[in-house]
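Trying the structure run again after the queue cleared.
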Amino acid sequence: MARAAAPRDYYARPGMMTDPGEHAALLRDLPTDIPGLCEVVQGLLLHVHWAVAYGFEVPADRMDEVEVRPAHRMLARIRELDASPLDVARPVERRMLGNCRDFSTLLCTLLRYRGVPARARCGFGAYFQAGKFEDHWVCEHWSETEARWVKVDAQLDALQLKVLMPDFDPRDVPANQFIVAGQAWQACRARREDPESFGIFDMRGMWFVSGNVFRDLAALNRIELLPWDGWGLLDTAYAEYGEAELALHDRIAELTTDEGAWTEMRALYEERLRVPPVISSYTQRGVVKVELPG
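Done. Tokens:
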């Protein structure tokens, strides 16, 4: 029983990216149900790649918002743009710019604040482009009534649902519609799927899947990096990987897709793969070194 409870206890507490810090009081009166919290998140954030669909042209001087990592800084920027209570949906031009990682991380923040076990997951969505698995993040929360982790896509609001027309409830995304990174790696290694179908825009292939395997590992250890962040092995070109590096990916994929291997996953991370205080961020401006919050 204690072993089963350990992961849920771990994910009920914030990590460095999901600690609301001095803004915690702003979360006190928010809804406690998943639909209500999704509406809150959707009213605070605007996905940078969907902005035009909402009739908003993103000013160049606001693009730095997509580089914000920890929740306490996200909340600070949200309040700078509009000081209304967090449960008041902002006009699109006064929402903070972000991406799927930010929707998932902010929902995770709100759930952990309430003591609800939650974790962001990095992987690929099958519901954005037919025949493709698009780079994506969702948030999982533990359902006591169903005794399982439930995947929630907090990004999909009414407009996006109308455009995408998924045949499932985004508050309970099926496993075959969101493929966690480790499963994507395994499917590609076994040649069940084409690696070139995994990625985003013109960035596709095993090298992309590799990056998500590591970022999902970090997220499972409560460090929700940006989709273009890397550390350790990710600072080496995928083309230079040998059998040892591929075997390490195989092991990470195995541990991050097996709920019964949580202790082993945590040990591998802490002993060999811990995210350092300074990481590499592969931005459109080039590679920059970023110091993470303490």
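The chain has one domain: 2-154+166-291. Worth checking whether this holds up in the mutant runs.
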